[in-house]
Amino acid sequence: MSSQKIATKFIHAGAEPDPSTGAIMTPIFQTSTYVQSSPGQHKGYEYARSQNPTRAALETALAVIENGKYGLAFSSGVAATDAVIKLLSPGDEVIAANDMYGGTYRLFTKVFEKFGIKFIYVDTTDVNNITAVLSEKSKLIWIETPTNPLMNITDILAVSKISKKAGTILCVDNTFASPYLQNPLDLGADIVMHSSTKYLGGHSDVIQGALIMNDESLKDQLYFIQKSCGAVPGPFDCFLVLRGIKTLHVRMKQHCENGIVIANYLRSNPKVDRVFWCGFLDHPNHDIAKKQMRGFGGMLSFTLKDSSVEAATKVLSSTKLFSLAESLGGVESLINHPASMTHASIPREERLKNGLTDGLIRLSIGIEDAEDLVEDLKQAIG
Ligand SMILES: *Cc1c(COP(=O)(O)O)cnc(C)c1O
């Protein structure tokens, strides 16, 4: 099956006609439990926190689209991240990217630090920074590429080599790229994490997360955590993500095309200072992006020459097609102010140290007509 091309894979992943009716779409098995004919006599389904057929179809699909063996679905992206950290024990160390989703940073620092897990944040765009802090206590390396919101790129293959040598687990948050653009398992990662809320769902109507892996023992441990801690998605939400995956390639193609148009327009606008987009030839890690991704996606950030919060606020509240909202990856375009919205949980000094300035504006470029999107930004930026 792995020889199938992307579009075929995304449409058919996990899809088998329902054995009882032939329904082409996996039914929404809205049930909490399953009847047994005598104790222990069942069809592999006992209780829906542990197993649900709609979720099972989605988990198969997740594995297929990331070229992995096993997929696990969670009730949110952060629940998936939470499950990965629960592989660890007090005293263990995690090396994590210093530029990542604010909710991941909050989970690490505010929830897990007090359980004795130590997080060391480094700039992973230079892999030597990872080697420099490795110790025998290091158990996990956590990277995000491209990063949210600065679009920094980390070399997954290079980090996976370091991780394998050190015997650590490498987990890659692949939310921004989606499996259409990048497959971290193929580059040596041990676990791929997704906020399925974003591109996989694709229609801003579901909160969900995913983990995909190849190693059976890792899958067994994570499945144990999934059912023991219970952050499982409901069957209707699983149905929505299954449906989203079927059009992922078509949507991503358009997100990428629109991304190119908007990135170039912003760069040509004299009021714009910097545009953070990994498709530019002069992006610091453009060559790595080109090597490990099949396109540059629909996310970018920019700053204005007038770096005041007031100037950014004016743009943020003047767009008409771009809606001011958290989240990303849906068909409709969104505009966001990371400093006060998605990344408000990161202390200001930390933010500024990593280049996430008060005036930074993030765009999730949807799949509307690119010309209309440019017109909207033109009238908002002036
Ligand atoms: C949104 C997001 C998350 C968290 O996922 P939820 O589904 O909101 O819990 C994690 N990582 C990245 C890169 C995200 O954009």
**What order do the strands of the largest sheet run in, or round the barrel if closed?**
1-7-6-5-4-2-3
Q: What CATH architecture label of the largest domain applies?
A: 3-Layer(aba) Sandwich
Distance between the termini: 51 Å
Q: Approximately how much beta-strand content do the residues carry?
A: 5-15%
Q: Count of DSSP helices? A: 14
Order of helix and strand elements from N to C terminus: HHEHEHEHEHEHEEHHHEHEHEEHEH
Shape: globular
Domain module tally: 2
Main pleated-sheet profile: 7 strands, mixed
**Number of E-type strands:** 12
Question: What is the CATH first-level class name of the largest domain?
Answer: Alpha Beta
The low-confidence runs, each spanning 5 or more residues with pLDDT under 50, are none
The radius of gyration over CA amounts to 21 Å
Average pLDDT level: 96
Structural class, from helix and strand content? alpha/beta
CATH topology of the largest domain: Aspartate Aminotransferase, domain 2
Instruction: Give the helix proportion (percent range).
Output: 25-40%
Bound molecules: pyridoxal-5'-phosphate
Name of the CATH superfamily of the largest domain: Type I PLP-dependent aspartate aminotransferase-like (Major domain)
